[in-house]
Amino acid sequence: MINFAVMMKVIFILISFLILSFMGRISAQEKPFGIVIHGGAGNLIEGKSYDAHLKKLEEAIDLGYDILERGGTSLEAIETVIVVLENSPLFNAGKGSVTNIKGEFELDASIMDGKELKAGAVAGLRNIKNPIKAAKFIMDKTKHVLIVGDGAEDLLFRNGFKKVDKKYFMADASLKPFQDSKYGTVGAVALDKFGNLAAGTSTGGIQDKMKGRVGDSPIIGSGTYADNQYAAVSCTGHGEFFIRNAVAYDVIALVKYKNLNLQQATNFIILDKLVKQGGAGGLIAIDKDANIATPFNTNLMFRAYKTNKGDYGVFYK
Ligand code: ASP
Would you state the pLDDT for residue 214? Predict the structure, then answer.
């Protein structure tokens, strides 16, 4: 009799344990995660095929999502994906960068870790293949946020970054998406399984910009922002407007102080506020629940997203 009671107890404990661990597994699986990327906002060129751009975006979004699915961090996912886009001549970042008015390349990038509000950025780089890696280096290895020009390059070369020649960035002009438009940039935002948000942006800037001109992309709060409690944002467009409106942080502020959801906050800034000012561009954003938003007020923005909630798409219009 006693033996039977003990046995029943043991069985009860075992079953409870199995149920609890099963529920634990489910809730771990249900933690939302996802990634959104962009390849710049600009003017649609009628009759031009964008198939190659869409293919590259698809490759990048799948790669980023796989990293997150395997348990990689949001920082790892966005850095990897941005490197893929920087290495493609199709986008205005890294290899496909546009030139300034003197025909020189001056590349900008930034990255932000939403967990600790750490950030790193570089501007005016001429000989660094992957500016996003340089931004990550500034974030991880220095006590500063933004280092520009020669100072940044000297530091990077001393720390193992290889020098690439100007020729490296001279992509075939016919491959560039925005020959008759000034915009184009790449960026990524992600939420990983651990609830960490991250954002990154990389650009060659605006075609025929003045020498030394810096846009919004390397400015934390303008082109890039991430805060685990709210969202991660990466912008593209006419940088001067994005700087003056502190766009990336404005998204966070509207969510934080006005309780707007991500869609409302980003639509208001891109489709209302910036339109009234004549500021062309768009942004990508993901929040702490893996809700995503990709508003733009131009007639083209390369973008792609993938979440474990079933969102998946690659678009340009
Ligand atoms: N925002 C970038 C800049 O102003 C350009 C772009 O996104 O196309 O440098």
Answer: 98
Test site for ligand 1: of 238, 245, 274, 303, most ligand atoms within 8 A of the Cβ:
238
The token duo for 28 is: 């771990």
At 223, list the tokens: 């082109």
Query: pLDDT tens-digit profile of 212-250?
Result: 999 999 999 999 999 999 999 999 999 999 999 999 999
Contact 293, 262 (CB under 8 A): yes
Question: How far does residue 237's CA lie from ligand 1's centre (Å)?
Answer: 5
Q: CA-to-CA distance for 285 and 263, rounded, in angstroms?
A: 9
Question: Predicted confidence band at 26 (pLDDT cuts at 50, 70, 90)?
Answer: very low
Q: What percent of the chain has pLDDT over 90?
A: 85
Rg (alpha carbons) of the chain, rounded to whole number: 22
Q: What share of the chain is helix, strand, coil (3-state, %, to 5)?
A: 40, 25, 35
Residue partners of 264: CB distance under 8 A and separation at least 6: 254
Question: Would the CA dihedral through 81, 291, 114, 283 be positive or negative?
Answer: positive
- Answer yes or no: 203 catalytic: no
Task: Show Cβ contacts of residue 15 under 8 Å, excluding neighbours closer than 6 positions.
Answer: none
Q: Which helix (H) or strand (E) holds 124?
A: strand 118-125
The type of residue at 133 is K
Half-sphere CA count of 309, side-chain side, radius 13 A? 16
Q: Show the ligand 1 pocket: residues with CB < 6 angstroms.
A: 40, 183-185, 203, 205-206, 215-217, 236-237, 239
- The answer to whether 197 touches 223, Cβ cutoff 8 Å, is no
